[in-house]
Amino acid sequence: MAQIIVLAIFLGILSYSMLNIGMGLQKKGAACLPKIEKQSFGQNMKNFFTNKTWLIGFLLVQIQWGFLAMALDFASVSIITPLMSVGMVALIIFSYFYLKEPITKVEMMGIIAIIIGIVVLGVTSPSDEVEYNLNFVFENISKLSSIIFLIVAFIISILLLVVCISRKFANADILFSISAGITDALGAIFLRAYMGGADFRDGDVLREASLRWGWWVIFVLMILLNATATIYLQVAYQRGKAVVVAPIFAVLAMITPVFGGILIFNEWSFYFTEKKFGFMAGRIIALAIIAAGAIILSLHSARSRKFDVCDVDEDEKRTQTPDLVQPIDASNASK
Q1: What is the spatial distance between Cα 71 and Cα 79, in angstroms, rounded to a whole number?
Q2: Rg over CA atoms, the chain
Q3: Rounded distance, CA 178 to CA 232, Å?
Q4: What is the pLDDT of residue 80?
Q5: 148-188 pLDDT tens trace
Q6: CB 6 within 8 A of CB 74
Q7: Does residue 102 sit within a domain?
Q8: Contact yes or no for 187/225 (Cβ under 8 A)
Q9: Which domain holds residue 182?
Q10: 331 lies in some domain
Q11: For residue 74, what are the CA distances in angstroms to 4, 16, 71, 187?
């Protein structure tokens, strides 16, 4: 049993480190590409998937889902969740040394608050005594309260984008980060539901799940939400710093499943049945600390914007170059 826990911790650290470093690489690649909203779908696909830096980051982010799924299958959320703070540390180190992005004191305060909150949240998480088999998943995810939660969360993510676009992408780094975090969190909720039939330790359970169409619907929704969150995240990367975008994304990606766990999977019933009200209070405080860290980062990003050199549109570069060359050519011709 101890060896399985150690393996789960290793997989969790690997997953969250790959996630944060992958997002940093995606930011580095996306910042040097033309703005997404100014390109066609086909051109955007070509721009991103021919950018080696972005592509490596994209692959890291996608691969980490497999390691995270295995970690959650081998150990409880209360053990794996705090490891997200290790991934945040990996991002800070990576951004400083590779992206060459200076980290201000205000940003460091926000990041430290998020890391502390994540650790406390993980320590106060229930021990996952409920078995998430497919029958449990289908019964709970089809409840009216579960459906309302999923729809409302999705609508909020869309409304933020509508507001941002209507304001000509003002504060796009913050708003798109929030939308990406919510969308990714919905994907994570469906990942948890999907794992109800994807038991890597029991082949019979996996074969039985593969025969149920509902399990495949959950799988498709998980993939679509993950892909959508990736697109949102690229817009945020093009508009802000990785040490601001990634923490906001991570906060929403973790807080949203907390409410999903309460409404869909009845996770907080543990605190009432076991009378662990102190742990429940600790978890609420942890969420408040994480939210405070996100607010600090968001406000600092809005007040002191630092644009990358690559933020200059490629279209502008193309139009500027002929203007500089044309007079020279004309003068040579006159001679």
Answers
A1: 9
A2: 22
A3: 9
A4: 77
A5: 999 999 999 999 999 999 988 888 888 999 999 999 889 88
A6: no
A7: yes
A8: yes
A9: 2-307
A10: no
A11: 6, 16, 5, 20
**Tens-digit pLDDT profile for residues 216-251:** 999 999 999 988 998 898 888 887 776 678 778 877
Rounded CA-CA distance 38/40 in Å is 7
DSSP 174-197: HHHHHHHHHHHHHHHHHHHHHTTT
H/E stretch holding 27 reads helix 2-31
Number of domains in the chain: 1
Q: What is the pLDDT of residue 191?
A: 82
Residue type, 292: A
- Write the pLDDT tens digit of every residue in 273-321: 777 778 788 888 888 887 788 777 766 665 654 434 454 444 444 434 3
Q: Is residue 329 part of a domain?
A: no
Would you say residue 115 lies in a domain?
yes
Angle formed at CA 319 by CA 315 and CA 322, multiple of 5 degrees: 145
With contact defined as beta carbons under 8 Å apart, do 308 and 31 qualify?
A: yes
270/321 Cα distance (integer angstroms):
65
